[in-house]
TrEMBL record:
Protein name: Methyltransferase
Pfam families with a match to the protein in the record: Methyltransf_11
InterPro entries: Methyltransf_11 (IPR013216), SAM-dependent_MTases_sf (IPR029063)
Gene3D superfamilies, per the entry: Vaccinia Virus protein VP39
The organism's taxonomic lineage, starting at the top: Bacteria, Bacillati, Actinomycetota, Actinomycetes, Kitasatosporales
GO biological process: methylation
Organism this protein belongs to: Streptomyces azureus
Residues in coiled coil: none
Length: 233
């Protein structure tokens, strides 16, 4: 996904431009910190105190120049208008968040308002069109059958969450003024790997396969996750 995001950034903004990035629901700060290391000015918004603590600990170990480029704010992603002015950011990330939000449209509209004209909105969501893949490949036939007619599922943390369908998000992005520009699949082949599975020795080949599949039909359509990139008009 990081490679996909970098492809969109390089294709949209001048080389060397220091971008203003907002990471909503940044978690432990993996992408936020990576982009700060790349020279961008990054703001991470997160409401989980444990995740904030992990992100702050990681940031504390970075050189001063990187620490100065990243700030962390405790808050709910649905309240971006409380913290920031409209059009304040060139890039807004919202990765792995929508599955926990029962009504995502107000959140997405708020994220779009944070973007400057031509800004990039990057979403990572559970693929509602492929919920039967994981149970089907693991031999859970009843679970696979039930998954065809729903966007609800139980994740690996044991939480009851929701998925999004590509056509629905495409319509939503158009409606909030950040129409879909590109989309990718994420975890096409590796989603069924056991938690804690050892990283293979040929990890670069694995990544190359996933990257290729994530941009190639029909493979990307059955990925566990979808990476959608909208552009503010």
């Amino acid at each position: 996904m990081a490679r996909q995001l970098d492809e969109q950034i390089v294709g949209r903004f001048p080389v060397g431009k220091r971008l203003r990035v907002l990471d909503v629901g940044m978690g432990q700060g993996t992408q936020a910190l990576r982009l700060a290391r790349a020279g961008h000015q990054v703001t991470g918004l997160e409401q989980d105190a444990r995740m904030i603590a992990v992100a702050r600990e990681s940031l504390a170990g970075e050189p001063e120049g990187i620490r100065e480029r990243m700030r962390i704010i405790e808050g709910d992603g649905r309240d971006t208008g409380v913290h920031f002015l409209p059009g304040s950011f060139d890039v807004v990330l919202c990765h792995g968040v929508l599955m926990y939000v029962e009504e995502p449209d107000p959140l997405l509209a708020g994220l779009a308002r944070m973007l400057a004209p031509g800004g990039l909105l990057s979403l990572l969501v559970r693929n509602g069109d492929a919920l039967a893949i994981r149970p089907g490949l693991s031999g859970d036939w009843a679970g696979a059958l039930a998954a065809f007619d729903t966007t609800a599922y139980r994740n690996r943390l044991g939480l009851d969450v929701r998925a999004d369908r590509l056509k629905d998000l495409t319509a939503t992005l158009a409606g909030i003024g950040a129409p879909l520009h590109a989309w990718y699949g994420v975890r096409v082949f590796t989603d069924t790997a056991a938690d804690g599975a050892e990283v293979p020795a040929d990890v670069e080949t694995l990544l190359a396969v996933e990257e290729k599949a994530g941009r190639t039909d029909p493979y990307r359509g059955v990925a566990a996750l979808l990476h959608l990139c909208g552009v503010r008009g």
